[in-house]
């Protein structure tokens, strides 16, 4: 009873309410985390998000998150980056549009006010294009800080994705990272289990999916397919199709980051957000 009350409170606070009973009573119920649960994310607003990736995801019935920033070449190079109109189309297609900051800065070097301003700008732009207010975030360049975690919490973000470090080495050309373990990890410091690049491929995808068991979740990060301006995180379109086919053939449940709220209670957070990372650092 106490638990169900807590869940209702949580649902009210965070606004996610799942259909609970035949009487129409709204009760938030967490689904059990299945093995091979995979979160798919795409960073930086590459043109391929709309011109290639979205249709491939739809063919497979996969959910995904597009992390939006007006940094990098977004404002100057509309050949290589999507427009806001295209971002709105991705939203209408059912994908998650989420926050990757206004200018793609290293947030570890910013004050709380500066981080908040970076986040608010993308929220404002989303509102202008009638896109729901983002509830998930991705740290630009994978750099994070306690200040940024605290700002995100204050601004009611539910989940935020970091990179593969410090648990895994990052050569900056794609690589492996830890699976997300909701039992210990802070939801605003969700690790990346694999990010595509020249040093990441099918065997690494197999490995990432294999980590997604016993309550752990594989979180995958892609950039452009292809990444026209950033060769170090490039993913070949033909390889990408093979990756999606593998996820399908393996029977993976492939979701957007916001959909984690169906499986994970984001209010359950370690007091020290970095304690789990320090404890398992290799
Ligand atoms: Zn980025």
Topology:
Layout: H1 2-14, E1 37-43, H2 48-60, E2 65-68, H3 84-92, E3 96-99, H4 112-128, E4 136-138, H5 146-154, E5 159-161, E6 175-176, E7 194-195, H6 202-211, E8 218-222, H7 237-249, E9 253-255, H8 275-280
Parallel strand pairs: 1-2, 1-8, 1-9, 2-3, 4-5, 7-8
Antiparallel strand pairs: 6-7
Helix pairs in contact: 2-7, 4-5, 6-7
Bound molecules: zinc ion (ZN).
Protein architecture, described:
This protein is an alpha/beta fold. The chain folds into two domains: 1-30, no CATH class; 32-280, Alpha-Beta Barrel (TIM Barrel). Helices cover 32% and strands 12% of the residues. The chain has helices at residues 2-14, 48-60, 84-92, 112-128, 146-154, 202-211, 237-249, 275-280; strands at 37-43, 65-68, 96-99, 136-138, 159-161, 175-176, 194-195, 218-222, 253-255. The strands form two sheets. Strands 1, 2, 3, 6, 7, 8 and 9 form a seven-stranded mixed β-sheet that branches. Strand 1 (37-43), helix 2 (48-60) and strand 2 (65-68) form a beta-alpha-beta unit. The site of zinc ion (ZN) has 5 residues, from loops. Zinc ion (ZN) binds at residues 43-44, 100, 104, 140.
Please report the total strand number as a whole number.
9
Q: State the CATH architecture of the largest domain.
A: Alpha-Beta Barrel
Total count of domains: 2
Supply the CATH class of the largest domain.
Answer: Alpha Beta
What coarse outline follows from CA principal-axis ratios? globular
Indicate the proportion of strand residues. Answer: 5-15%
Bound molecules: zinc ion
Give the quaternary arrangement of the chains.
single chain
Uncertain residue segments: none
Helix content: 25-40%
How large is the radius of gyration?
Answer: 18 Å
